[in-house]
């Protein structure tokens, strides 16, 4: 089956090749075109032609029609008016019903728009809440990472100071002994070092160790408080679960008691009815 082609042109018209590609291309197979003109002679002014009036033939006749011979207007116009009025009323009712339907559709659309806007607001609120929680989580992680880095740095400083203390203690002793042996260092300086430098160094190390101990104590307190809070939450959840189970058991027992009482009353009623029938017989 050949592919569908262009429909034939309408009468008095012809198809023409048109360039529709994205890039212009010279058409080399165009038909030969030529411009041709024609000139007609002007007609001389002349008077208009007279109207044609055919010659009269035959005989004239006339008929007298009295009033009421053809039709009664009041009688004939009543069904026409009924049809027109009925059609007008029908069209009016359709227009009113259409307006009411459009009003109902607009109200439904407004209600749908309100619901959709409320849902969009709720979605935006949830998205904002999720973003806020994620940002809070990242901030807490960053704080914890910075705290660990500070702890590691503090540990390194303490270890470096302890190593320096151990190393310098032997070094200083050897130097002092050597200077004392050579006679270039006196006892007052040794006493000043023992009374001033060493207490200062110990105080600095003690202060650093105190800060580390304080940080560890604060971390232990936070962890202990978190564990206590988790225990309280779990105990409250267990207590709520047990209360709910107890309430369900009580409702079930009450329902079984009510069913047993209803069965007992039914049996008593049937027995009373049976006794009444025996007395009647």
Explain what this protein looks like in three dimensions.
The structure is a single chain. The protein has 281 residues and is an all-alpha fold. The chain has a domain at 202-268. It is 73% helix and 0% strand. It has helices at residues 73-182, 187-280. Helix 1 (73-182) runs antiparallel to helix 2 (187-280). The longest helix is centred in the middle third of the chain and has 110 residues, at 73-182. The protein is flat. The model has no long low-confidence stretch (mean pLDDT 80).
Short description:
With 281 residues, this protein is mostly helical.
Question: Which tags fit this structure?
Answer:
281 residues; mainly alpha; flat
User: Spans of 5+ residues with little confidence (pLDDT < 50)?
Assistant: none
Question: What string gives the helices and strands in order?
Answer: HH
Helical proportion, percent range:
over 70%
Overall morphology: flat
| Secondary-structure-derived class | mainly alpha
How far is it from the N-terminal to the C-terminal residue, by CA? 98 Å
Question: Could you tell me the mean pLDDT?
Answer: 80
Report the radius of gyration as a whole number of Å. Answer: 58 Å
Number of E strands = 0
In DSSP terms (H or I, runs of 4 or more residues), the helix count works out at: 2
Beta-strand residue fraction:
under 5%
Q: Biggest sheet: strands, sense, closure?
A: none
């Amino acid at each position: 089956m050949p592919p569908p082609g262009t429909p034939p042109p309408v009468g008095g018209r012809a198809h023409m090749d048109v360039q529709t590609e994205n890039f212009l291309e010279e058409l080399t197979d165009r038909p030969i075109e030529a411009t041709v003109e024609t000139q007609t002679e002007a007609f001389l002014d002349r008077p208009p032609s007279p109207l044609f009036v055919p010659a009269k033939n035959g005989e004239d006749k006339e008929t007298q029609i009295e009033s009421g011979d053809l039709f009664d207007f009041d009688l004939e116009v009543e069904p026409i008016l009924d049809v027109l009025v009925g059609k007008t009323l029908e069209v009016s009712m359709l227009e009113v019903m259409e307006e009411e339907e459009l009003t109902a559709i607009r109200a439904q659309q407004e209600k749908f728009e309100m619901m959709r806007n409320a849902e969009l607001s709720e979605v935006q609120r949830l998205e904002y809440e999720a973003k806020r929680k994620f940002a809070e989580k990242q901030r807490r992680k960053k704080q914890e990472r910075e705290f660990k880095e500070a702890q590691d740095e503090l540990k390194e400083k303490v270890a470096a100071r302890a190593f320096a203390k151990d190393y310098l203690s032997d070094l200083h002793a050897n130097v002092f002994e050597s200077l004392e042996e050579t006679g270039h260092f006196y006892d007052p300086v040794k006493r000043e070092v023992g009374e001033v430098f060493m207490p200062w160094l110990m105080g600095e190390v003690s202060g650093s160790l105190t800060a580390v101990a304080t940080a560890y104590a604060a971390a232990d307190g936070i962890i202990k408080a978190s564990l206590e809070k988790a225990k309280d939450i779990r105990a409250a959840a267990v207590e709520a679960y047990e209360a709910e189970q107890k309430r369900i058991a009580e409702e079930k027992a009450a329902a079984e008691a009510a069913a047993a009482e209803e069965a007992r009353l039914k049996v008593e009623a049937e027995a009373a009815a049976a006794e009444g029938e025996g007395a009647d017989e």
